[in-house]
Amino acid sequence: MSAQEKVKAQAEQVVGKLVRKGAHAMHKNTLAAKGAALEARGRMRSAKESTKDSFRH
User: What is the pTM for the complete model shown?
Assistant: First the structure.
């Protein structure tokens, strides 16, 4: 996994979690869903890069 993609995936997960938790605290369901989607996108990006690395070796 390239370092840049790894950082990007981790950042999306962290930002998504913060947005989701903050939105839940303010009772903003739409924003919470967007945060959850961002977090999931970060997890999927990480999984994709891990899969690419496993086939590269």
Answer: 0.82
